[in-house]
Design goal:
This protein has six helices and no strands. The chain is mainly α.
Length: 105
């Protein structure tokens, strides 16, 4: 929530746009947390890509509602691709969390 509100203030966008866009995939992942625990790397990649798609889809939808014009789909696609390419770094953080969690020992 704080990151989204900071992005709204930093970029001068409507208040709450990025906060909702960041909270939407967070709610999805939080509700599926028990399903995600112990999944293979491929399934974690699928969930990561899905949560990125939900975040950018929510941002696209809310931006189009606010400005009454649709953002450039190519720009959204390239942002989606660039964010999905960050998965190895996210996977490293997930692996660190699993190593630190006593439930997996």
């Amino acid at each position: 929530l704080a990151t989204g509100l900071f992005l709204d203030l930093f970029w001068g966008g409507p208040a709450g746009l990025w906060a909702v866009s960041v909270l939407a995939p967070y709610g999805l992942v939080l509700s599926a947390r028990s399903v995600l625990t112990g999944q293979s790397e491929l399934m974690r990649l699928v969930w990561y890509v899905t949560s990125v798609a939900v975040a950018l889809g929510t941002g696209y939808f809310l931006t189009s509602l606010d400005s009454l014009a649709f953002p450039n789909l190519w720009a959204v696609f390239w942002q989606f691709l660039a964010t999905c390419l960050l998965y190895p770094m996210a996977h490293r953080l997930i692996a660190r969390f699993e190593d630190a969690d006593v439930r997996f020992r």
